[in-house]
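Our platform keeps sequence and structure together, in a single record for each protein. This encoding replaces a full spatial description with a residue-level series of whole-number codes. We quote a single record here, exactly as it is kept in our systems:
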Amino acid sequence: MPRPTLDEIFDEPDEFGLLDVRLKARGTRPPELERDAGLVREVNDFYNRHGRLPNEDAADHDEMRLGTIWSGLAGRADPDVFVDVDRNGLLANAPVDETPPVRDWRDDPLEDEIPDSLDDIFDEDEGDVSEAFTQIRNVTPVAERHLPDHRAEFFPCPDFEIFQPAFEELQAELDAGQREATAVNSREVIDAQEGGYFIRNGLLAYIAEKAEMTARGGKRDHRLRVIFSNGTESDPLISSFRKALAADPTARVIHRPGLGPLDPNWEADQLDLTGTIYVARSRSDQPAIAEVRDILLKIGVTTQDVHRRVADARNDPTFLLAPVDIVATYDLKNLSRRKVEDLLHRFFDAARPRGLWIMDRFGKRIYPREWFYVLPEHVSQAVGAIRNGTLHELRYDPESQKIVRKS
């Protein structure tokens, strides 16, 4: 059977009224008002759903946006231009704002506002200085400002002979193309881990130590020990180190060897540095700390100068936000700082203050993780046992407050 032609199809009765199409009259609205027409249509849809106009002070962001734009359009739009989309006649019934427009400082002054003499200026009542210019509000008092007790500066590295061979080996690998150095992206978050190498201001920089967690301005941070290839070192916060790299157009990140953390060569750059064990006592005036000050000690290990390590203690949550007194120090010989610190903390774990905490400046609780209810002589005994290799035969008994031999 031959297929029907289009003429035959259109001559057939239109049973379902498919061909009864009424074209909408073309509006007389200029193209630049089509955006406003879309807004009027959107507000009418909102009115049909909620039975009211959108509120520019609403908590809902979309309603607040719609209400704010509508309040500006309703006062200036011609209802006749948008009659085809304003189904509810919202523009025709919009209240007319008869408030005179607010004068801008760019507008020319009115004639009666121009003074004739200096006397007219000084006699004006409105010439008084506003309190907003004389009173300071929402400013932290000087006594409560977050001021560091020391700044990270460059100073000679006392044990540079430990790092010099590693710098020379790294430079040779860079020259031979065996190691890759890429530019620092200003938006990149630098992962400054112990053992990492960077180039800053034309010098090789090595992250020798990443100290315990601290805080600045409510943000978590660490203090670093950075060794430079010219024989100097510095102890910046990790945030300051990142900013210095981002501001240096010559800064580079030197990639680690290996394919990732599971690669045995991944930690090849990390040196097992010998450090100093220090025992500190808090000078905090908080009652929870002051009443146990004589038996509450911090045990830490650092590769840098101990007094520099504790210089900013009053701003450091690790030191309970208070200055400290150094009770004792012990030099390590051919022992890894990280391993020794881990040994001591695990050895005295039973003496860790479980229910002790302080509140920081931001209302957050701080639980001391490196503080212990011990005496200086207990730490001295444990250090001696580490030196002669017998610590594994001993344990700390918190009930008798003694170091005893394991049974």
The chain has three domains: 28-101, 155-254, 276-405. The radius of gyration is 37 Å. The longest strand covers residues 203-216.
